[in-house]
Structures are given as structure tokens and as C-alpha cells.
Design brief:
globular; 263 residues; 10 helices; TIM Barrel; binds phosphoenolpyruvate; alpha/beta
């Protein structure tokens, strides 16, 4: 099954970077590139995920762009609504601040900050109930891949959230397949391996929901301009979640351009 009619997404995950002045410059450079060579909204959804305190600044800076650039939160609280939860930001508070997209389940959250299945599930449930669109990250470790468990691990991570996704909410979910061993390492899954996993993910999604055929499945893990076209050519790779390369305006622009032109 192919998801090639799906509008691709290219999302930059800035992680705990950069300083505000550098972020401002990065956005200005990116906007300039977009102005010189526009990427049509229908050709590619584009988003950036800055640190939480910069969400609204970044959103403001993109207001005068000739197209929509989504501002994406990198995470949210497992607690819903408002209340005495020091340091937390809920789905409802993001929505109230006009932030409509959020990453959930990034491997750094799972591995470093202890986001286990229950926490990830609660975050997904809260985000969907608040009307946010989720970029749900899944991916196997090197040990799991070498043990031949990659598919099983990834499909289980998708099954982990099915109990909290209502049938009409699946179209608010974008999947990001990010093999952990490829994140920030310079190692990319080969286009063949990535496509094979994406096809399995799509098969799994189609068994869960009729939306599965239309859902975007992004690849993440050392995506750069040099490998973007090859990845974009794979029928079930509907975009990229980009870490390191999104901190350089030209690199990020070229990746978005690769997906916009290829799909
Ligand atoms: C990520 O952390 O989501 C990511 C894909 O990082 P990088 O592109 O740097 O591998």
C-alpha cells in the first residue's frame, strides 16, 4: 500500500537549542529562502518545534510568512487542564496559546525523562481531547534491531496508544518513525530499510483505522539535504522529522524542498 498522495510534512525539532538571538536569525534566514523560492502549502506542511519558552515568539515571527509554518511544542504534560502541577504545560494551555501541534513519545523523552507507556498514553489522550495534532514518535534501539525485534517494537508502540484514540481522532495523528540508533549519530537507515518499516507501519495502521491509508508517516534520524531526495522518493515516507539539520536554515529549507518537489 502506498501513501504517496499524502501531503508531506517536514518538521524541525530544535530540541534544547538554540539561544533566542540565534533562533531569530535562523527564522529570518529560513523566511528569506521561502520568499526567494516559495514552497507551496499544498506541496509540504512545514513546522518547527522550539523550546517551550520560545513557542509564541517563534509563532509571531512566522506570521508574516507567505505560507503557514506550524509552531510545534516538543512535549506536554501528562496532566490535563489547569492545576497545581509546578513546571508543567498542559494540552489545554498549549491550545489556549494557539499552539496546535505537539511531539509526543520522542525517544529522548522516553529514554532520558522516563516517559513510559502510561505517560505517553496520557499525553496522547490529553492532546487529542484538547484538539491538538500529534506527531507521535516511535522507533527501535540498535539492540532491538540487531535482535530482529524492530518491527515488533515499533508496531507495539503504535498499539500502545490505540485505547486512547477515538476513531474520529486518527486524522489528528502523524507518525514519526525514528530508529534510535540513527538520531543525532549521522547514521541514516537505508531508504530500503526505512521504506520497509514505513510500509509495515502503514499496514499496521490500516488494520487499526480506515484513516491509516491517509496518515503521514515521517522518517527521522540524521536526515540532511544529501539524503532527503532518496528518502522522499520512497512511497511510504511522507516527510521528515529533522533534528540537527533543522538548526541550519539552508539545510532545513533544502529538506523541505526535496519532499515538496518529490511527492
Ligand atoms: C530527532 O531527534 O528527532 C532527530 C531526528 O534528530 P537528528 O536529525 O539530529 O538525527
Amino acid at each position: 500500500m502506498s501513501g504517496s498522495t499524502i501531503t508531506p510534512w517536514v518538521v524541525g525539532n530544535w530540541k534544547m537549542n538554540p539561544m533566542q538571538s540565534n533562533a531569530k536569525q535562523l527564522i529570518e534566514e529560513f523566511k528569506q529562502l521561502l520568499q526567494q523560492h516559495p514552497i507551496l502549502e499544498g506541496a509540504c506542511h512545514i513546522g518547527v518545534a522550539p523550546i517551550s519558552v520560545a513557542l509564541q515568539n517563534v509563532q509571531q515571527q512566522f506570521l508574516d510568512t507567505n505560507r503557514v509554518i506550524y509552531t510545534v511544542a516538543q512535549d506536554l504534560s501528562r496532566m490535563a487542564g489547569t492545576g497545581a502541577y509546578t513546571g508543567e504545560v498542559s494540552a489545554e494551555l498549549l491550545k489556549d496559546s494557539h499552539i496546535e501541534h505537539v511531539l509526543i513519545g520522542h525517544s529522548e523523552r522516553r529514554e532520558i525523562f522516563g516517559d513510559n507507556v502510561e505517560i505517553v498514553r496520557a499525553k496522547v489522550e490529553n492532546a487529542l481531547n484538547a484538539g491538538l495534532t500529534i506527531i507521535y514518535c516511535v522507533g527501535e534501539s540498535l539492540e532491538q534491531r540487531e535482535a530482529g525485534q524492530a518491527e515488533q517494537v515499533v508496531l507495539q508502540q503504535i498499539c500502545d496508544i490505540t485505547s486512547v484514540v477515538k476513531p474520529e481522532q486518527w486524522h489528528h495523528i502523524v507518525i514519526a518513525y525514528e530508529p534510535i540508533w540513527a538520531i543525532g549519530t549521522g547514521k541514516t537507515a537505508s531508504p530500503e530499510d526505512a521504506q520497509a518499516m514505513h510500509a509495515k507501519i502503514r499496514e499496521g495502521l490500516c488494520q487499526i483505522t480506515a484513516e491509516g491509508e491517509h496518515m503521514a508517516i515521517l522518517y527521522g534520524g540524521s536526515v540532511k539535504p544529501e539524503n532527503a531526495v532518496e528518502l522522499a522518493n520512497c512511497p511510504d515516507i511522507n516527510g521528515a522529522l529533522v533534528g540537527g539539520a533543522s538548526l541550519n536554515a539552508e539545510s532545513f529549507y533544502k529538506i523541505a524542498q526535496a519532499f515538496a518537489n518529490t511527492k
